[in-house]
Write a structure and sequence with these properties.
The chain has helices spanning about 30-35, 65-70, 125-130, 160-165, 185-195; strands spanning about 10-20, 20-25, 40-45, 45-55, 55-60, 80-85, 105-115, 115-125, 135-140, 145, 150, 155-160, 175-180. By secondary structure, it is of the alpha+beta class. It has a 7-stranded antiparallel β-sheet. The longest helix has 13 residues, at about 185-195.
């Protein structure tokens, strides 16, 4: 589990073909130097397992499912990625509960600069929008954010200067795809209601 509070911006060193998937090598700074083999690291919203460590560089193996259903299949050398280590039992839960299991892709629909802040609207699949509510939580590329509002096709978030500077979200252009994970509680409630609606 993660909190959606990005610890550092990593940089892709190499994307190495490893059929049927790829091996992703990332320069991860202090996270890389403190990593252990097999540990989970949320990488731009995707929970990945460390398979190799070399100084501050770590490697992950990505299969066809991850490559086709997330933005990680679009990464190239030099691409920035948001990194967060998994929670320990003594950690504070500063964001919200994030699994690192991407629910689907969205895209940046608009961005409006308001002083140092940025107000963004993201297009998303209808099924995911149904799991969002104003003042609820959403994870965009591994970043825990508060939903401002939701309509039939998009949802809005406000990005503070710290988020813009220390995550990949400040670099997004209109049309860019993003990994989305909706709130865990919403998913369980939706599934419970769905199950109750099925006649016995």
């Amino acid at each position: 589990m993660f909190t959606g509070l990005v610890e550092t911006l990593g940089s892709v060193v190499a994307v190495i073909p490893e059929p049927p998937g790829v091996r992703l090598r990332v320069a991860a700074g202090a996270i890389g130097r403190g990593a252990t083999l097999g540990e989970s690291i949320c990488t731009s919203g995707c929970c990945l397992s460390v398979v190799k460590i070399d100084g501050d560089e770590i490697e992950f193996q990505l299969g066809p499912e991850t490559l086709s259903r997330t933005t990680l299949g679009r990464l190239i050398a030099g691409s920035p990625v948001n990194l967060e280590r998994s929670l320990t039992a003594s950690d504070r839960l500063g964001g919200h509960l994030v699994t690192g299991h991407v629910d689907g892709l969205g895209s940046l629909a608009s961005r409006i600069q308001e002083g140092d802040w940025l107000t963004c609207r993201f297009a998303a699949p209808r099924a995911l929008l149904a799991q969002m509510a104003a003042k609820g939580s959403v994870t965009i590329d591994g970043v825990s954010l508060t939903v401002v509002d939701v309509d039939a096709a998009t949802f809005g978030v406000a990005l503070i200067p710290h988020t813009l500077e220390h995550t990949t979200l400040g670099r997004l252009a209109v049309g860019d795809p993003v990994n989305l994970e909706t709130d865990l509680v919403f998913k369980y409630v939706a599934r419970w209601l769905e199950a109750r609606a099925v006649p016995e």
